[in-house]
Amino acid sequence: MAASVPLWRLGLEKGPPVTGIVEELNRKFATDKTSYVELLGDIGPDAKPALATLKTFLEPEQLIRLRQATAIAIRKIEPTEAAKLGLPGNLGVP
């Protein structure tokens, strides 16, 4: 999955791999959600369809590293949504 974003940027993939990444994030036992969230942030505004899924990772019961990555990804994807949510706020501090 990590190679799909660079391939898309190079024009070797038709569209951004947002759907595949979101499917991986929604898997019950996805192993490295932080990496998938960071990929969505790397895609930028084209990853807007993933915002609903990303918001679920901001909940306090999530690991802080995942919450930080999510806040940063949302800011890269949709800055106005991040501002409405007050992101990254204290989540922007490593």
Task: Explain this structure.
The chain has one domain. It is mainly α and 94 residues long. It contains six helices and no strands. The chain is globular. The model has no long low-confidence stretch (mean pLDDT 86). The protein starts with a helix and ends in a 9-residue tail after the last helix.
Q: Helical residue percent? A: 55-70%
Rg over CA atoms: 13 Å
How many domain regions? 1
Taken from the alpha-carbon principal axes, the silhouette is globular
Structural class: mainly alpha
* Total number of strands: 0
Mean pLDDT: 86
Short description:
The chain has 94 residues and is mainly α. The chain is 55% helix and 0% strand.
SSE topology:
Layout: H1 4-9, H2 18-26, H3 33-43, H4 51-55, H5 64-77, H6 79-85
Helix pairs in contact: 2-3, 3-5, 5-6
Question: Main traits of this protein?
Answer:
mainly alpha, globular, 6 helices, single chain, 94 residues
